[in-house]
């Protein structure tokens, strides 16, 4: 699990947080995973609930409401819901993230907010449990001395830790060039929890780049169109995204982190439901296979001779 976002003055770098831009800092709930889980419920392109209190309302009507109260306390069953709660919570939030709000007293709003935090912490606890993170792969067995890598696997592991320098950011629990097999290597997460700017091209297949015209409500999702540049961590640190920055001194550091995105874990990086399933890689889905990822690292500094070169993901 990612640590709470913090700035290491010695390394001059940020560590922790969740999301590609680290904005789920974990500072408020002391859990980056919990704060990340609070994003989807009211996101207009995810669950689309109009009010965070609707999560508490849904919980109160769920089959496990009694269990929630047993674990988290009586706040959930103490809330007096308005008569139109079901109608309100069934109205999706608009594209501009505006939707109807439940009419609650100050006390009930505070209870609903507390339930929303408890809900998030419960998700984080589940995500950290052995049921989700079992660390039961062959690689984990190898580190524990209970399995042997094939010659091909051992070659890949040596390449990962050595010449390819993957281990520089995606920490495998070993120093570069090491071979593994010590207690300190148990359950590596294959990330250093920092951020990097890889010079990745824009993914113009993303609809967002083309949403520069008003919708039926007059809302323009991306006024900049194709000119939009995702500044990643820098945008979050600048405060321009509307997400509170825990430490105001971080704002002056924003330009140094423009274009950087969080280094993800490589755990289960090629896990697919079936062999022909196409996964998207990198923060914007620009690359569609691990082979393309390797080609990108090998050729990203070689400019293509022509625009729209067919070899853009192979040799340039």
Rg, nearest Å = 23 Å
Side by side, the strands of the main sheet go 1-2
Oligomer state of the chains in this structure: single chain
Q: Could you name the ranges where pLDDT drops below 50 across 5 or more consecutive residues?
A: 175-184
Structural class based on helices, strands and sheet pairing: mainly alpha
DSSP, total strands? 4
The H-and-E topology, N to C, reads as EEHHHHHHHHEHEH
Characterize the biggest β-sheet.
2 strands, antiparallel
Shape type: globular
Number of helices: 10
- Cα end-to-end separation: 35 Å
Strand content: under 5%
Mean pLDDT: 91
Percent of residues in helical segments? 25-40%
């Amino acid at each position: 699990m990612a640590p709470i976002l913090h700035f290491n003055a010695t390394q001059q770098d940020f560590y922790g947080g969740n999301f590609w831009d680290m904005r789920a800092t974990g500072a408020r709930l002391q859990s980056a995973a919990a704060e990340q889980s609070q994003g989807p419920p009211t996101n207009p392109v995810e669950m689309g609930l109009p009010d965070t209190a609707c999560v508490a309302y849904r919980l109160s009507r769920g089959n496990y409401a009694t269990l929630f109260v047993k674990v988290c306390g009586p706040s959930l069953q103490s809330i007096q819901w308005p008569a139109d709660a079901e109608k309100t919570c069934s109205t999706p939030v608009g594209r501009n993230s505006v939707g109807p709000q439940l009419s609650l007293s100050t006390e009930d709003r505070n209870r609903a907010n507390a339930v929303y935090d408890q809900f998030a912490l419960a998700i984080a606890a589940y995500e950290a449990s052995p049921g989700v993170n079992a660390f039961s792969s062959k690689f984990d067995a190898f580190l524990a001395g209970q399995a042997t890598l094939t010659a091909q696997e051992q070659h890949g592991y040596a390449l990962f830790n050595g010449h390819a320098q993957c281990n520089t950011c995606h920490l495998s629990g070993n120093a570069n060039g090491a071979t593994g097999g010590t207690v300190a290597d148990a359950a590596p997460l294959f990330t250093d929890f920092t951020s990097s700017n890889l010079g990745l091209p824009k993914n113009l297949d993303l609809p967002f780049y083309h949403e520069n015209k008003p919708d039926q409500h007059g809302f323009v999702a991306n006024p900049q169109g194709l000119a939009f540049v995702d500044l990643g961590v820098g945008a979050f640190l600048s405060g321009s995204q509307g997400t509170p920055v825990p430490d105001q001194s971080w704002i002056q550091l924003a330009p140094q982190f423009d274009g950087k995105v969080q280094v993800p874990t490589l755990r289960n990086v090629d896990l697919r439901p079936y062999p022909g399933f196409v996964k998207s890689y990198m923060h914007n889905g620009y690359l569609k296979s691990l082979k393309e990822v390797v080609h990108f690292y090998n050729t990203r500094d070689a400019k293509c001779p022509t625009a729209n070169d067919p070899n853009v993901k192979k040799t340039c």
